[in-house]
UniProtKB/TrEMBL annotation:
InterPro entries recorded: Beta-prop_NWD2_C (IPR056534), DUF4062 (IPR025139), NACHT-WD_repeat (IPR052752), NWD1/2-like_WH (IPR057588), P-loop_NTPase (IPR027417), Quinoprotein_ADH-like_sf (IPR011047), WD40/YVTN_repeat-like_dom_sf (IPR015943), WD40_rpt (IPR001680)
Domain DUF4062: 26-113
Domain NWD2 C-terminal beta-propeller residues, every copy: 1282-1360
Descriptive protein name: NACHT and WD repeat domain-containing protein 2
Signal peptide: none
NWD1/2-like winged helix-turn-helix domain span: 610-721
Highest taxon in the source lineage: Eukaryota
Keyword Repeat: yes
Amino acid sequence: MDDRTIDLIFAGSLEKLPPVSSKIVRIFTSSTFTDTTMERNTLMAKCYPKIKDYCREKHGLEFQVVDMRWGVRDEATDDHMTTELCMKEIQNCQRLSMGPNFVVFLGQKYGYRPIPTYVLSSELQLIRDELAATGHDPVLIDTWYRKDANAVPPISILQPISSILINFNNKRIPKLQAEDQAKWWDTLGKFQKLFRKASSSLHQQGKMDRDAMHNYFMSEREVINGVLNVKNTKNHCLAYIRYINNINLQNLKKASLFVDIINRSLDVESAKLLANLRDERLPAKIESSNLVKYTVEWIGREGLDNETHEEYLKNFITHFYKNIIKLVDRAMRKEDSSAQGQIVTEILQHLHACNNSVKVFYGREDSLDHINKYMTGDSDKCLILYGEGGCGKTSLLAKSAGMSTGKEWFKGAKPISIVRFLGTTPDSSALTPTLISICQQISYNFMLPFEGIPDDLVPLTAHFKQLLTMATKEQPFLLFLDSVDQLTGTQDANKVSWLPTRLPPHCKIIVSCACEESNPDVSKEYHVLRRMIDVEDNFIEVRALGEDLAMKVIKMWMQTAHRDLTNYQWRLVSNAIDKCSLPIFVKLVFAEICRWRSYTKSQDTYLASTVMDSIMMLFERIEKQHGRILVFHALAYITAAKSGLSESELEDLISLDDKVLDDVYQYHLPPVRRIPPLLWTRIRNDLPNYLSEREADGVSVMNWYHRQFRDAAKERYFKNMNMATYFHSMTADYFLGIWGGGKPKPFKYTEIQRHRFNLTDREGIADRKVPVQPLFFHSKEGTVSRYNLRKFGELPFHLVRSRRFTDLYENVLFNYEWLHAKLSSCPLQAVLADYEDACLHIDDKESKRELQLVADALRLGGAVLGQYPNMLAPQLVGRLLPEVGNNPNIKMLLNDCDLKGPKQCSLLPLYHCLHTPGGPLKYSLEGHQFAVFSICLTSDYRYVVSISNRFITWDLSTSDLTRDVNPNIEGIMQHLVLSPDNKWAAAYTNNNQTVLLNMLSSEFVTIDNPLGDSKPITGTYLLNYNLFIYGDDEWVMFDMRGNLEERYTAPLDRNEWPILHMEFDSTEEYRVIFWKGNIDDDRMLLYVTTKNGVFENFEYHSAMVLTKDKNALYTCTTPECYAVSKYIKNGDTNKWEKVCDLPRSENDDTEMLLQLKLDKEDRFLFGTTSNGFVIWDLNEEKIVDNAISLTLPYSTRNITTKMLQSNSVMLSSHRNFAIAGVRKNLYVWNIETRKLVKVLDAHFGRIIQLEPLTIGNWNSMVTSSIDRTVKVWNINNIFETVHVIDRHELQVDSISLSDNLSLAVTATRNCVGVWDLKVGKLIAKLADSPLGAIIHHISQTGNLLIWLRLTQQVIFKDQQPV
């Protein structure tokens, strides 16, 4: 693909689109029917499975073979459609296949020369007249060909054989069938003679050209289309030519399988035609390296046989295998697997879909005018196309994209058109990959690197909106997003809140979504969009076409298809359209009437009056035509699949389904027990636009194009729940790999087979040639080369829905190898989704609890497992050991971890050592190597940003680590601030550097201390476009690139009042808190400057907090007392005015107030005192009138390390509990009784920060600690049992083991610990006094101490010289 083509694709041009690169190797094998049976059977049994494995393991490609003759008993199919299907399949292979697409096998037999199925009526009339003129009776032509005047121009159609020879397909009475088949072959022979004679004569008379004449002679249409008309045969075509020496013509029956016989001797005409093709035209066209010739001997009665020609077959399949994989490898080397190559493939799929819709679009001028006005007008909001399913929203959106890029609407501009039919490709099914691909498309056009695009949804959405601002008049952005309601993985309950509510100039977005009055679930997104976009003119309802337009559209489509109808048939169409004129219905009607001939009987020209009935009618017709059981099962498998099935998977599933095979092979025994590929090809051909191809798990799959088809298929095939269970169970067996890799599957012979073939056995076994289904594939070196993503996506889904819970537990949800492989290749969320899905379908409470425990254990370890999946076994064992007793499935999983975990991580814990799920701890977020000194929640409460020597961001709803940035600084960051739009984060370090981080792109700037005389930094503050760094007497303003813009000096003397804290609303409006510079002097001063001027300095002491709007504050102003008063801002006098005193709390005359904080609604005020906490309800409807005093236990105190900062307290979402973090514990009080009801051992080190997370259904909080972790707690579970992990408070300095290894003794700086190694419990802490001592090998206190372990008493103490 050249650069110009790529540029046009990225610009969204719909002109001259190259084909889409697929994930399929699909070869058409062309051969004559009888003489290559041995080779084709050998390939099917021994070679194709190996090629399939190679393609899947090495390249992640699907390998498919289209052999239209394998497994088919008689080539002359009843409806004469084989030739036409072959041509279509050759085109499909050429369109789809990666590398090889056509293999021809030629021998010494020219083969079956069918007579044309369709002949121009005018041409047939010429032939008829010629035959009549030369004395031949034209009755044969009049009997077998019927003129279809509905074709334009009229054509004559060869009638189905069984319509005249009614026993042709009667397998039940073989004698009658044989008679009719003999009659047909006799008729065919007569036809061939008559046609060749007449066409030769007409050619000589100049009434017929050479090609038209050759049409009645040849059998080589496949080779012409597959090789001779192909430009590049080197990369796509292979030819195998086999000569047999000494064919025994005495045995005519056998010889006729390998050479053309006519009148008991060689057919000279066929031999000439074959020689011309095989020896001249083919070698002249195909690369010599791609053509192989074999010569073999005729041996024995059979001539060719597997045993006598074993060496030849071995050489043949070895060469075939090598040649095919050579062409596949060559194609893959050219494939662009870079990010750019992948996005080109993604955009192309949508542009092709758009083109296909535009081709068949007619009418709707009013809607197009409306869209034109929007596109060229100044509206700054999205345009919404809405309507019921099947009303034509997609076509209208596609036509709008076509008009926009086709220069009709934007003359003189070069718009960038971004088209996405959401849900039709894997990268357009979920919001995150969709936005990434849109950002990549815009970035390419502006030469921006793809690396700058975030992969986390919140910054990604912001980045997307930022990119939209790059649109210009010369290069406007036009986004067309179809079926926005099909998106998954959005952050909110609705799927549209990420759309911009205001668009930047020169940017337009058209969105389509469903809206059905009778279906509120489907209409949910439409109603959200109505609230987001309050302009009526920006909504276009796409209605049914109406009878007039619908009839007009059908007539246009018929014209394009070169079809017409009789007057009676047109009346039937008009009656149907009168009842329903939805585009989807019109398409179904069009597909049906295209089949009608002018001679079709009136009872066969029936049209339904609803979409559902039309689809049911279509299914019924296909079932009648191709066999009910085959069609039922094939379509049911596609409907049952989670994300569609590839053609190979479907063929494999049907080949494992003996209900289908018993029906297909009622009357004969196949060489390999698999479904003949031709049978599915014929069904797919009758469902042309109803099955769409899309990608899932890196494979091209088929799925229903429209929701109505899926609903109809479910209604038809899954009405009986046992049938649904059957298909899910069969699919589960396939992805479990039960019959893969050569394991034969038993089957029962049908009664007819036993009778016809004199079989004594009732049962047989047969290898179905389906692939193995490992969790991953290995390279030659033995390393993991790729994971089996199809298995990960489909297997759990089918095991759940077939209610095979034992298999689900053993193979998936409680299986270590499965969990490790899926975690290594998929996001943690995909693994957790399997547990959530299982819980929804399981009734057993105990099993449900076990599932939730494992899922919660994975969540708790999410921060580690997201980066290091090899830590899975230690995480599961360390967390779930206490739950082994009553939970057999967890026991099974942990045994699995013990056995198989050491392959990935040898350090497996023997004892419980990590927090166990099921209690209050929801997630433990790990990743920091130093204390986490500060955390911030984003304004939507979705993410927590944390700092140590690096910035780490976690998703609070999934525990995923979404960003980890190491700015490579020497110090530890102290205080984190976020900009109001959450785009920027900043923190300063203990060595006075400041780091400014772009949260969207992860780019950062490090700023050295900008303050005069190298004074220490006191703090930082962020606005959306500026960073402020302040010291004790000045502050400095920077832009977001780290450039210094302005210096400011403090308005007060630093010696008297140094700066403690600053907040900015803009560069002119800010607040400064000054203090005395001494932590024992609690006096402070608030300095405020606004647009109205500077406020009078406001002095207070101890603690102060401002409301969200900064118009009120709560503080202590009463001397010698810690009572709290409320002040409000008076903009007229520029003074703070006292409003009231809050209710007094206990001991507020003596107990110092260390901190005041407000909740996010400014309803509750929280005070921290040295002995506990005070809570005031500021609402008019108070839960209590007085101050709520909560006291800490004796000997536990709140301390302050910085003015205005201390330990925090919060209220649960139901306001029934207060929770505070003090030292390393969480303290819980009952608000009603004010009693301390729970002390929770929360962290291994002091808790630095506690933030409430009570929003929506969340009743949680987040804590950070010097133990290097951030933890999320579920307050609803605060009283559940906690499995305590024994530990020392200080680091362990030494360990000693007893002789029999039953005890261990550990020394820390304040005690000696004695551990029971059988259970991993700390059974004693030994010290000389209750307050502990400093312990060392040679004690620093100078004492030698000996304890009696049983009594824990010191029995000997000796002063040692130091």
